[in-house]
Amino acid sequence: MAVFILLLLLTVSVVTADEDSFVGVNIGTDLSDMPHPTQVVALLKAQQIRHVRLYNADQGMLVALSNTGIRVMVSVPNEQLLGIGQSNSTAANWVSRNVVAHYPASNITAICVGSEVLTGLPNAATVLVNALKFIHSALLASNLDRQIKVSSPLSTSIIFDSFPPSQAFFNRSLNPVLVPMLNFLQSTGSYLMLNIYPYYDYMQSNGVIPLDYALFKPLPSNKEAVDANTLVHYSNVFDAMVDAAYFAMAFLNFTNIPIVVTESGWPSKGDSNEPDATLDNANTYNSNLIRHVLNKTGTPKRPGIAVSTYIYELYNEDTKPGPVSEKNWGLFNANGEPVYVLHLAGSGSVLANDTSNQTYCTAKEGSDPKMLQAALDWACGAGKVDCSAMSQGAPCYEPDNVIAHATYAFDTYYHQMGKAPGTCDFNGVAAVTTSDPSHGSCVFPGSLGRSINGTLSNITAPSMNSTVSDSAVHKLHHGAFAHVMLVGVVLWSIAFL
Ligand SMILES: *[C@@H]1O[C@H](CO)[C@@H](O)[C@H](O)[C@H]1NC(C)=O
Ligand SMILES: *[C@@H]1O[C@H](CO)[C@@H](O)[C@H](O)[C@H]1NC(C)=O
Ligand SMILES: *[C@@H]1O[C@H](CO)[C@@H](O)[C@H](O)[C@H]1NC(C)=O
Ligand SMILES: *[C@@H]1O[C@H](CO)[C@@H](O)[C@H](O)[C@H]1NC(C)=O
Ligand SMILES: *[C@@H]1O[C@H](CO)[C@@H](O)[C@H](O)[C@H]1NC(C)=O
Ligand SMILES: *[C@@H]1O[C@H](CO)[C@@H](O)[C@H](O)[C@H]1NC(C)=O
Ligand SMILES: *[C@@H]1O[C@H](CO)[C@@H](O)[C@H](O)[C@H]1NC(C)=O
Ligand SMILES: *[C@@H]1O[C@H](CO)[C@@H](O)[C@H](O)[C@H]1NC(C)=O
Ligand SMILES: *[C@@H]1O[C@H](CO)[C@@H](O)[C@H](O)[C@H]1NC(C)=O
Ligand SMILES: *[C@@H]1O[C@H](CO)[C@@H](O)[C@H](O)[C@H]1NC(C)=O
Predict the structure, then answer these.
(1) Closest residue to atom 4 of ligand 10, CA basis
(2) DSSP H/E element including 74
(3) How would residue 338 be classed by pLDDT, with cut points 50, 70 and 90?
(4) Is the CB of residue 176 below 6 angstroms from any atom belonging to ligand 4?
(5) Is the pTM value of this prediction over 0.70?
(6) What would the DSSP string read from start to end of 332-358?
(7) Ligand 5 atom, smallest distance to 252 CA
(8) Are 195 and 262 in contact (CB under 8 A)?
């Protein structure tokens, strides 16, 4: 497919940002040792997280969040939706107890009415719009309707033919709910709430969607997805999905409703059927997502228009049912330790920084010694690591074993590559750690006190056959996933041919 640079130039110059985009975090509570609200808020403050979404309107959390400056979206849980959608006074009571009682000390900015109702709770679909209206009229009665928006998070699985985005449309059977809902969002100045999971789109595409494309990694231009109607290039699944939602709304003649992504993320651990739920991929996805959102580039269809996004999620939820990945979407463990340290050095003030805590690349204990030796040889050869510090008599010669030497070589390579995603893998025998492996006079790259010069970085160099080569065919796990993209896969294949 031909590349039309002209169009890229055109899209860049159209609109400029007029509002700030932000990154927030979802706080799920299915943990066996859920931290106390004051501990949760201490973590949010330490990580400078300024926007959160709760899945309910927990009194303890709202009290703990009061006077912190942290903005909070509260939710009407699906279990309460039927009651609220059927009774104006139930809705009014809910608002007075859970919102009016806490505002403005707790800066409630939105009410999420249910969660993925159209796909997860279809029998409540008929009352959804009434629920939105009842909640809104209660806010209006308290004169809070301008400060607090009302909407309902949708799953992207209701968007059909999502690639190319310009052909996307909503499942037509849902129009009787969606049209009045979009009317409501438009007339109240609210936004469409969307949960976007490139992880599931990738998993269910049977290899059609490249992993790099889901992870916001650069693609060669001949691999970029081009929308044949608009000739717009898509470099990541996230943008394509946001644009698909804009087009699907436009198809119903709604062209000015903004989008807020209420959930997006990547699991850091999975079972044997989920080989791409890894620490490295989760870190890459979330780091790139944060950078992308804060950069205010918008999407190809609406450049410069903020798409604020809430990461799914703050904590790993160990008591969630389902596959291993379901329990491992978190940025932090219950004790507040980061599951991984985001690659965000330099990009400032959100979430765990690289800079606050050094990271190192080490050989994994228990790795196959032959694989370690091969990786060590590669690092000291094609990987261009200066391995002279490990020669006899040099500071890192002792202990003279393959795991110690491989660790030194891996860590040096990792830092030479600017700690870029995928550069601490070495076919799975390496892992990122926060404990400094330096010993005696053997000081490791990245160790505090001697920072290596990153100027040698050659980002295009391959990190051996790292995770990028995992193109194994993924079996679909129907029913196991909450977010199933049923249609669109066929069109993806056309787009990537
Ligand atoms: C992140 O890094 C910046 C710059 O080094 C620093 O000012 C900020 O306090 C760090 N944030 C956290 C949460 O450590
Ligand atoms: C609450 O959040 C809104 C939206 O970010 C902001 O405009 C407002 O100033 C905040 N209010 C307080 C009291 O911090
Ligand atoms: C619902 O109740 C509010 C007061 O909370 C009232 O202003 C509004 O008119 C009522 N709406 C309907 C549809 O009954
Ligand atoms: C479209 O929506 C209808 C109504 O909820 C549902 O029954 C149907 O399964 C949906 N179609 C697909 C392909 O998801
Ligand atoms: C959208 O607007 C066009 C032109 O006004 C009209 O022909 C079309 O029926 C509308 N579509 C919907 C779904 O309302
Ligand atoms: C932000 O986006 C612009 C334009 O797309 C790009 O040139 C720049 O490198 C990006 N900055 C970051 C920090 O990603
Ligand atoms: C680095 O992280 C470790 C474990 O997560 C923690 O114990 C330590 O206090 C952190 N150090 C700094 C300087 O933040
Ligand atoms: C690091 O790189 C800079 C810029 O290339 C160079 O001026 C400086 O001397 C280097 N420092 C070390 C310790 O190599
Ligand atoms: C980066 O590495 C690639 C492959 O090893 C090589 O072809 C290229 O010349 C290198 N670029 C630089 C600037 O060193
Ligand atoms: C990558 O894997 C291929 C096939 O398994 C092999 O031929 C090649 O040598 C490997 N490259 C490296 C750098 O290990």
Answers:
(1) 465
(2) strand 71-76
(3) confident
(4) no
(5) no
(6) B-TTS-BSS--S-TTS-SSS--TTTS-
(7) 13
(8) yes
CATH class of this structure's domain 19-332: alpha beta
Are residues 234 and 225 in contact, defined by beta-carbon separation less than 8 angstroms?
A: yes
Higher-pLDDT residue of 11 and 218 is: 218
Neighbours of 106 (CB within 10 A): 21
First to last CA, the chain: 9
Q: What is the distance between the alpha carbons of residues 265 and 235, in angstroms, rounded to a whole number? A: 17
Active site residue 79: no
Q: How far is CA 170 from CA 173, 244, 288, 300, 375, in A?
A: 8, 9, 28, 20, 49
Interatomic CA distance for residues 306 and 331, integer angstroms: 23
Instruction: Compute, in angstroms, the gap from residue 43 CA to the centroid of ligand 1.
Output: 14
Tokens of 464: 């051996």
Instruction: Tell me which of 157, 158, 173 to substitute to probe ligand 4's pocket, judged by most ligand atoms within 8 Å of the beta carbon.
Output: 173
Whose CA is closest to atom 1 on ligand 3?
A: 88
For 148-182, write each residue's pLDDT tens digit: 999 999 999 999 999 899 999 999 999 999 999 99
Q: Ligand nearest 457 Cα, by number?
A: 9
Catalytic residue among 224, 263, 274, 313: 263
Active site annotation includes 365: no
pLDDT in tens, 61-82: 999 999 999 999 999 999 999 9
Active-site entry in 19, 79, 116, 398: 116
d(CA 324, CA 448) in angstroms, rounded, equals: 36
Tell me if 255 CB under 6 Å of ligand 7.
Answer: no
What are the structural domain ranges in the chain? 19-332, 360-447
